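Review form for a predicted model. The reviewer records the input and the model, then writes brief findings.
Reviewer: anonymous (R2)
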Amino acid sequence: MASISIMELKPGVRLSKDVHTPLGGLLFHKGKVLLPRDLDILTAFMVQNVEVGTSEADNKKSVKSTAPKSAVKEPIPVEQIGPSKVSVFYDKYDKLISIVKSTYQSAVAAELPIYELRNQLEAIIVHINEYNPLTFTPRLMNEYDYIYHNSVLCALSSYLLAKWSGLQQKDWMQAAFAGLFHDIGNTKIDPAILLKPSPLSAAEVEEMRSHTTYGYQILKNVRAINEGVKLAALQHHEKVDGSGYPLRLDGSKIHIYAKIVGITDIFHAMTLNRVYKKAQSPYLVLEEIKAEAFGKLDPALVQLFIQKSTDFHNGTIVRLSNDKVGEIVFTDRNHPTRPMVSVGGDIVNLMQQGQLYIEEVLSSN
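Model under review:
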C-alpha cells in the first residue's frame, strides 16, 4: 500500500483505502478501480493523496477487473436468460393498472374487488427492489389514464415510505392500500371537470375538492381495509398547519397514512403527464416538496422520502435542464437533489449552479 499524489495517479489502479472529501463524506470505497472520470472527481474535491495497492497481485487484480467482460466470457444466449427482473416488474405493474382501472370505473355501482387487488399488489411488492420513485416511468401510459397510474405509483411509494419511516410491517400494505384508493372519489367527479384543460371556476374547484369526501363515502363500508386507509382518502389534502381541506385539520389530527399519501400524491401528480399538464423533473419536484415541508407537509417524512429516493444514484445517467447529458458522480446527503454531474469530462456542481437542475433520469445503475 502506498500514498500517491493525485498529480501522479493513473487510471486502472485499485484503492486500498476509502477516500473521503475534505468535509468527511465518503467519495470512493476501498477496492474501487479508478476510471479516468474518477480522477476528475478527486481533483474537483481537492483530494491531495490516495492510498493504492502496490503489489503485483494488486496490479493483476486491477487489470483483470478493468478488462471488458466480453474478452473473457461468452455472452449467454437470450433464450437462456429468461425475462429480466425489471421486465417482470413492468408486467406486474401493467396488470395492476388494468385491475385498478376496472375497479375505479365500477366503484360507484359495484363492490370493490379487494382480494384481487391485494393479491396483485402483493405480487408486485415482491419485486419492490426494482422500483424507485425517482426513476420509474410507466412504459404504457395514456394521459387519460393518469388517475390509475397515480394510484398505483402512490401505492408503491407509500409502501416504501411506510417501511422507511419505521412503521410496523403490518402497516406497510395498509399504507399501500391508502395510496391505491386515495383518489377513488374522483370517479364521482364529472369528467368535464376532471379533465378540463383550462383553469377551473370557483364552483368547479369546490367540486374537485369533494373527491376527498366522495372517496371516504365509497370506502367507509368496505370491511377488508382498515380505518386508516379510509381516512387517507378523506385527509390526504389536509396540511399540518391546518390550511388544507376538507376539514382544515392540524397535524396532530391527520392519520399517518394520509401524511404519507399526501407526499407521494404530490410527487407523482407532478412527475406524470396529464391531459392539461406535462410532467416535471422529479428532482425539481423533490425540491418543491421540500419547500412545502415548512408548515404544509410532515417535515420528517419529507426528508426521509427525499433522502431514500435519491440514495443510490451515483452512476445514474441524467439530462440536465440545458439538455446536456451526464452522470451523477457524487451526492451530498445534505443536498440530495443537487448532486455533482460529470458532463463531457467536466464536473458540474448543481449546488453552485442554481439555474441548472436535473430534467430527466435517463437510466439508473
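Findings: The beta strands are 2-5, 19-20, 26-28, 49-52, 317-320, 325-330, 340-343, 346-349, 358-363.
Further findings: Confidence is low (pLDDT under 50) at residues 55-81.
Recommendation: see findings above.
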